[in-house]
Amino acid sequence: MKSMYSGFRESSICKGNGYKPPNLHKWGPGVRDVFALHYIVSGKGYLQTGHATYSLTAGQSFIIFPNMEIYYYPDPQDPWEYYWIEFNGLEASRLVSMIQITPDHPVLEASPQDFKPLYQMVRTAGMEPFERERSDAGLHLLMSYYMEHYPSDQAFLKKDYALSAREFIESNFWKPSLSVLDVVEFVNIERSYLFRLFKEENGISISGYLTTFRIRRACELLKNAQLSIQSLAYSVGYQDPLYFSKVFKKATSYTPSQYRKLIMEHPASASPDILI
């Protein structure tokens, strides 16, 4: 079986996009097999679904859901001008779930944000792998702004402070100056509240997680026989190699040199329990 992670993705989630100048174009009644997000630049139009008829104007957005019967058409006196983008797949469903829009309520009110430049940045994927990635990146950027202005309840739930703290540590562990205060300031919530959330989520304190992550990374780096202990220590956030060796031994019961020897002689035993 071919691994889903091997090579480039077989298809992008962004399936099409375009611009419709003011005219009397209409579509439906019918169903689509993709999400189709529209942004009205000027003029007026109407969207009919099985639930309601919506009168739409400049600045509003609406989305067609897969397999949802719809009919949309312009106002004959002031036909709308709009941009549109089509996308599908599991990732598309996840993105839409983060926005305050559902099949029962497929319309978003006008926002202070002008979405027109964001739609103009999206280009339908071509044949090249970089074109597919660029196309999907444009869609993700666009949807991130919709999430900002129209967050769903699920999007609020996804605001995981403990996860943000952990990701910050994992991105900055190599900095000798990194402190618990830095993590608190990044997450920007009350200190004791973050401490409690982090401990509940990870079973360890923030400072303990930082040390554990550094030591686990050091264990990986020790597989490189050419890397000196001093260089390794600095790579995981310790300026003093002697202090690093002390912390390492406390966490693993080995000195860095002993652990490296263990790796070379017994590769299957290369992941001892960290005792923090």
Task: Describe the structure in brief.
The protein has helices at 90-97, 116-121, 129-149, 153-157, 161-172, 180-187, 191-202, 206-221, 229-235, 241-252, 256-265, and strands spanning 14-20, 27-30, 35-42, 44-48, 53-57, 61-64, 70-74, 81-87, 107-108.
Give an overview of the whole structure:
With 276 residues, the chain is an alpha+beta fold. The protein folds into 2 domains: 14-155, Sandwich (Jelly Rolls); 161-269, Arc Repressor Mutant, subunit A, CATH 1.10.10.60. The chain is 42% helix and 17% strand. The strands form 2 sheets. A 5-stranded antiparallel beta sheet has the order 1-8-3-6-9. A 4-stranded antiparallel beta sheet has the order 2-7-4-5, with no helix packed on it. Strand 4 and strand 5 (53-57) form a beta hairpin. The longest helix is centred in the middle third of the chain and has 21 residues, at 129-149. The two termini are 40 Å apart.
> Span from first to last CA?
40 Å
Low-confidence stretches: 1-10
- Can you count the helices? 11
Percent of sequence in beta strands:
15-25%
Largest sheet: spatial strand order: 1-8-3-6-9
Taken from the alpha-carbon principal axes, the silhouette is elongated
The CATH class name of the largest domain reads Mainly Beta
Q: What composes the largest sheet?
A: 5 strands, antiparallel
- Average pLDDT, rounded to a whole number, is 87
The helix fraction, in percent, is 40-55%
Domain tally: 2
Structural class based on helices, strands and sheet pairing? alpha+beta
**CATH fold-level label of the largest domain:** Jelly Rolls
State Rg: 26 Å
The CATH architecture of the largest domain can be named as Sandwich
For this structure, what is the CATH homologous superfamily of the largest domain? Regulatory protein AraC
What's the SSE pattern?
EEEEEEEEHEHHHHHHHHHH
- Number of strand elements: 9
